[in-house]
Amino acid sequence: MAASEKNILRKRIAAVNGLPPISVDYEELTILYRHFNLIGIDEKSEWVYNKYVGRHAGRARVEKSQQTFQLVENLLNCKPVTNSYGLFAPSYLHALEEQAEIRPLADGYRSLLVGALTPDTITEYAATVRRVYHGAFCSVVDIEGHDTRKISPDIARYVGGDALHLPFADGSFDSLHTNILLDQFGDVHTGRDQRNEFFSEAWRVLRPGGRLIMMEKNDYNGVVLGELQKAGFPRVTAEQAQEFISRRLMERYLGILPTNNKEDRDYKRNTDPSPEENLIVARKDLPPSKRANLT
Questions:
Q1: CB atoms < 10 A from the CB of 294, how many?
Q2: What is the mean pLDDT of residues 272-285?
Q3: CA geometry: angle at 87 spanning 266 and 272, to 5°?
Q4: 50, 203, 211, 243: least buried by Cβ within 10 Å?
């Protein structure tokens, strides 16, 4: 790992937790990583955790803990344990590139991410969408937020709101994205009613020809495809997700970490199939007259 990358990540860890960069200690971060993974928890690891994350409370603690863990994974170059949008960027890119072949909007592309636990996830989402649609206007909606609501509007517009009552007009977006969202509604069985509400809302705010692009646990495959079709999406596909093998390679590819290595720009070299997640894409059809013009 280049010294410049190491310094960038240490400064980001410090900024997330309101610490001076000089106080971010590499050995402490190794202890913190083990603490996050419930390994070797003792008085020292508790002290380290409290130094970095434990001073916060409520939603701030949840966000800062998740973001710190992900940054530590990146700095130590460990296999990712926590999920974030960017880890699955190869699959999201596949869906966006397929959409661009049919609907190559030069400008005016509007995209929405539903739910975000960290600002880094929002940054990864916006960078992924703009790999395909360079001038895309990106938004994120979440029912609560601490650091996430402070995201720069140059990256994405943050809107406070509920996934079951999206605060947007009909036909507002060309794509709507989720990243392990469905668990928030309950399990496969108990969450059915809320999933159906969300799918109806997604259909409403998508433009004709738009895509609902979801990264979800493969437990949902057997029920979600039918639920999406009932919500008005006539074409729904599911496939095994592809994920980056490390956060560092993901951030280099998306341009979050600077790199001059050409191999870093070929994401297919740095991915593996995900054993637990699937990419689910639901398409809101264009009106027949517009479909005819594309053929």
A1: 9
A2: 93
A3: 60
A4: 50
